[in-house]
Amino acid sequence: MVEQQIIIAGFGGQGVLSMGQILSYAGLLEGKNVSWLPSYGPEMRGGTANCNVIISEELVGSPIVKEADAAIIMNLPSLEKFEKFVVSGGNLLINSSLISEKTSRGDVKAYEIPANDIANEIGNAKVANMVMLGAYIELTKIVAKQSIIQSVEKVLGSSKGNLIQINEEALKRGAESVKCYK
Amino acid sequence: MAKDLMKGNEAIGAAAIKAGCRYFFGYPITPQSELPEYMSRELPKVGGVFLQAESEVAAINMVYGASGAGARVMTSSSSPGISLKMEGISYIAGAELPCLIVNIVRGGPGLGGIQPAQSDYFQATKGGGHGDYRLIVLAPNSIQEMCDLVMDGFDIADQYRNPVMILGDGTLGQMMEAVEFNEPKKRELPPKDWATTGIKDKNGKKRLISSLFIQPEDLENHNLKLQMKYEEIKKNETKFESLDVDDADIVLTAYGTTSRIVSNAIKALKKIGIKAGMIRPITLWPFPYGAYEKAADSAKAFLTVEMSLGQMVEDVRLGVNGKKPVYFYGRTGGMLPDQTEIVEKVKKILGGEI
C-alpha cells in the first residue's frame, strides 16, 4: 500500500497550512484518500504552526501523524519539536535558509533546501513553501507536479495567472535542489 | 458530484444548507467558529438568516422560537457554550421541537481548554438539562459521515419532533477530508401542523407551544408520551458499525476521532497475532446495547477508549451486563489516546496482567 504520513511545520505566515492543503488537494485530484489536520489554538503570525497530512490508497485511519514518513521543516523550533516523529529511514526536509543547525537524527534521510534563498531568486519570498513542496514530491512522487499546479489554481483561483507561473517555477527549483542527493 | 476537500466545521454548514436549514443562531467559540463564520457568509445567499446572538442562552432560545414557527433551524457551539444552552435544550425537548445542535467538544470542565475532547458524553446522552428528556446524539468519525448525519439529522428531528445533537470534537471540526453531499434516505415526514404560523387549527383552536404543564397528571402524561416516543427512536434509529467482532478475543469500543485511532491500533494488533475487533456507536443515544449481546459471549474482554476519563464505558458495561470484564483507557484535557498505548493496554489485558 502506498501511503505517506507527513508533518509540515514552521512559523505562522510561512504557508505551512496552505502547503498541506495544496498537497492534500493534489492527492484528492488523483483519487487518493487524504486527510489534513492543522494545529489550532491561540496562534498568530510568527508563532508556530503545523499540520498533519496523510495521502493513502486506503481509507485514512487516524488523521494524527505520530510516525511520519516525512517532515517538512521550515524553522528551527519546528526541527527541534518534530524531527523525533520521523520514522527511521524517513525523509526530513529542512529549510536551510533559516536553519543552520543539523538534525540530531542519524537514521533519517536529511535534505537541506535553501528554500527562502531560492524563493528570493525567483522573485517572491512567499513561495518558499512551494520550493519545499517541489523537493518533497520529487523525492516521494506521491503526487504528480501537475496535480500540485492544478491544486494551486484551485486554492489561489485561476485569475492569479502570474502566481501560478511563479509557483510552478518554485516547484521546479525545489525539485532540482534535491537531485544532487540522489 | 465531484468530491471536495472541506474542513469539518464548514462541511457541517454546507450539509445543513443543502438539507434546507435556513436559520442559524449562535455565538463563536473555538474550535467550532468556522461553522458560524461559514453560515454568516453562505446563509444570506440562499435567503436564510444568520444571527450572532448576544450569548449562547439567547441563541438557543432563538432556535426555540424559529423551530416553534416551523423553520428548519440549527445552532452550534463547543462545550462551555453548550452548557449555557442546556436550559433552552431542556425546554425544546419538553416542547417537542425539532432542531439540530452541534457540539464540537473541547476539554473541560469549566472553561477547560480548546483542544479536542469527548468529555461531554454524559451531558449529551444522560440529560445535561433538567427533566426526563433525551437528545438523539449522532457521533460521526469522518467529515463525510458528519455531512451525512447532519443531513439526515434534520429529518430525524422532524420525524420525531425532537432535538438532535451532532457530537464531534475539535479534531473533526478542524480537519479537512474529501466530502460529497448525498441525499439521505427518504423519510416520511409528518406535516408541521403544530407550528405557530398564525393559523388556527381546524377546530378553531389556537396553536400553543409550551413545556409548562401545571397539573401533575398532565405533566406525567406528557412525560409518558415522551417515553413512548423515545422507545420508538430506540427501535428505529440505533446505529453502530462493527469491525471484526465475531472472532475477536477482545472487543474495543470507541466513537468519533478515537475510533480512528482504535482502528489503527487494531491493525497493529493483527500484525502481532492478536484478534481484536471494534464496536463503534454512531448513535450515542440511543446507545447500541444490543451490539454487545453476542459479543459478550464470544469475546474474552472489552476495552473502551475515550478522550475522557471514562463516560461511555458505563454504557458498554450495561451492554456487556457483567458477562465479561470491561476495561478502560482514556486521555483527557485535549490529549489524544495513543495507538501504541492502546496496543500495550490490550496486551496487558489479554496477558492477564490487569
Reported for the largest beta sheet of chain B, the result is: 7 strands, mixed
- Mean pLDDT metric of chain B: 97
Secondary structure class of chain B reads: alpha/beta
Biggest beta sheet attributes of chain A: 6 strands, mixed
Describe the structure using short key phrases.
heterodimer, A: 182 residues, alpha/beta, Pyruvate-ferredoxin Oxidoreductase, domain 3, six-stranded mixed beta sheet, B: 354 residues, Rossmann fold, 12 helices
Describe this structure in words.
The complex is a heterodimer of chains A (182) and B (354). Chain A has 182 residues and is α/β, with parallel strands linked by helices. Chain A has one domain: Pyruvate-ferredoxin Oxidoreductase, domain 3 (3-Layer(aba) Sandwich). In chain A, 40% of the residues lie in helices and 25% in strands. Chain A is built from six helices and six strands. Chain A is globular and about 40 Å long. Chain B has 354 residues and is an alpha/beta fold. Chain B has two domains: 4-237, Thiamin diphosphate (ThDP)-binding fold, Pyr/PP domains (Rossmann fold, 3-Layer(aba) Sandwich); 241-350, Rossmann fold (3-Layer(aba) Sandwich), CATH 3.40.50. Chain B has twelve helices and 14 strands. Chain B has a seven-stranded mixed β-sheet, with helices on both faces. In chain B, strands 9-11-10-13-14 form a five-stranded mixed β-sheet, with helices on both faces. In chain B, α3 packs parallel to α4 and α9 packs across α12 (339-350). Chain B starts with a strand and ends with a helix. At the A-B interface, α1 and β2 of A face α7, β8 and α9 of B. β2 (33-38) of chain A pairs antiparallel with β8 of chain B, so a sheet runs across the interface.
SSE diagram, text form:
The complex is a heterodimer of chains A (182) and B (354).
Chain A: E1 3-11, H1 16-29, E2 33-38, E3 48-56, E4 68-73, H2 76-82, E5 86-95, E6 109-113, H3 115-122, H4 128-140, H5 145-156, H6 161-179
Parallel strand pairs in A: 1-4, 4-5, 5-6
Antiparallel strand pairs in A: 1-3, 2-3
Helix pairs in contact in A: 1-5, 3-4, 3-6, 4-6, 5-6
Chain B: E1 4-7, H1 8-18, E2 23-26, H2 34-42, E3 49-52, H3 56-68, E4 73-77, H4 79-94, E5 99-105, H5 121-125, E6 136-138, H6 143-160, E7 163-169, H7 170-174, E8 176-179, H8 216-237, E9 240-243, E10 250-253, H9 256-271, E11 276-281, E12 283-285, H10 291-298, E13 301-306, H11 313-320, E14 326-330, H12 339-350
